[in-house]
Design goal:
The protein has one domain. Helices cover 68% and strands 0% of the residues.
Length: 283
């Protein structure tokens, strides 16, 4: 009696999962930088806006100056907001649209039928977000310093704050991007569904317009969402301490930044765990 050979069972140990995740991150990053529209609207968009705002508004003088003294340049004022916007675009917008398109064109369905561990797939996505967002921030800081002479923080405590705010922010943005990828019903509708709300959020969260200029009811709405807190955390790093007086409550409120972003991170993880599907239920 003959028997049919069986396919060997693949080993999915931690090392294999990590190796495949790193390989997937390299692949995702390579694909990302080959897409011209993605590079402009998620990678270079904050860089371009920083340049435009810095040049267009420099005739207004320094922000926060008193009797022609003190304050910071327009480039220094907009740098934290552009970093925050870049984190939002790299995490939420990029992953939300990318995964929605992959679900629509059948890529996720095909990947689900391969030996690639689910953890490795998401490691690849998050790895790509980390690499591209760090590169974007480096370009923003370099542009601000070299082209506009922005003075960067010298205190180690400021850079320590930057590190934890960035890691918590990009983790939250990536998880929320995965979570909202379920909203578009097709790849074609991904951009129209995801981009407009995020654009509105940038205008009401202190990225393009000073948060203190917004009416109280709009400040209250934006305070529910994470972008306002990401921008506030970044302002605490790159702006002088006396600018904290312009924030709600008159302080940077870094514990509040950590709490709100932590809550959104947990919410995003729960939504991903409950709602994420390789294919849409209605497909």
């Amino acid at each position: 009696m003959t028997t049919t050979p069986t396919r060997p069972t693949a080993s999915f140990g931690p090392l294999r999962t990590l190796r495949l995740g790193l390989a997937r991150a390299v692949y995702e990053t390579t694909i990302y930088f080959r897409a011209g529209d993605t590079i402009f609207f998620t990678f270079l968009f904050p860089v371009v806006l920083l340049g435009i705002f810095s040049v267009a508004f420099q005739g207004l003088g320094n922000v926060g100056e008193v009797n022609g003294q003190g304050g910071v340049s327009q480039a220094a004022f907009y740098l934290p907001g552009m970093i925050a916007a870049g984190i939002l675009l790299s995490g939420v917008q990029n992953l939300g649209i990318d995964i929605a398109v992959e679900r629509s064109d059948g890529t996720l369905k095909r990947l689900a039928g391969t030996p690639l561990p689910v953890v490795s797939y998401f490691m690849g996505k998050i790895g790509q977000v980390l690499v591209t967002s760090l590169a974007q921030i480096a370009i923003l800081i370099l542009l601000a310093r070299v082209a506009f002479g922005v003075e960067l923080p010298t205190e180690p405590a400021k850079w320590l704050t930057f590190a934890w705010v960035y890691l918590l922010s990009i983790s939250t943005a990536a998880v929320l991007g995965i979570a909202i990828s379920q909203l578009p019903k097709s790849g074609k509708s991904a951009s129209p569904v995801i981009i407009p709300p995020l654009l509105v959020l940038q205008f009401i969260s202190g990225v393009y317009i000073s948060f203190s200029l917004l009416p109280d009811w709009l400040q209250a709405i934006s305070s529910v969402f994470p972008l306002k807190w990401i921008a506030q955390g970044m302002r605490s790093v790159f702006l002088p301490d006396d600018f904290a007086a312009a924030e709600v409550g008159g302080s940077w409120d870094l514990p509040g930044v950590a709490i709100v972003l932590g809550i959104w991170l947990v919410v995003g993880l729960v939504v991903c765990r409950i709602g994420f599907r390789w294919i849409r239920k209605d497909s």
